[in-house]
Design a protein that fits this description.
Layout (H helix, E strand, L loop, with lengths): L1 H20 L2 E8 L2 E7 L8 H11 L9 E8 L14 H17 L22 H5 L5
Antiparallel strand pairs: 1-2, 1-3
Amino acid sequence: MKQIFHKILSVLMAFVVLFTTMSFTIDMHYCGGSLVDFSVFTKAESCGMEKEQLIKSCENPEMTEKDCCTDQKIVKEGKEDLKTSFIKLTFERQTFVASFFYTYINLFEGLDENIVPFKDYSPPFVERDIQILYETYLI
């Protein structure tokens, strides 16, 4: 089960890297407020209304109607570099790195000698077992 989870997670991470580095363009052509053509990676085809309006405006120079067709383009640029630079360390990063190394190194540091706080004291002398003498047992 653990191996399957690791394989699924590695494939998902590969797709995340792929989609963050890939850039793409979405091109849309609207005619009269409605979407006529939608295209990813290529230019959207027009509906042909631009050509008719050019001919009409060329025949009548006083005719200056606004074009009913519009093109909309959405561009998503991919990341060029995935590796972040640690050359410039801010004060917060320096503080974090110093405290991390200090705690990590001290985690494995042992004592110089084995300190036993009760080694100078002798154990109590037991003549008889008091629990058996009074027949009191912990349950």
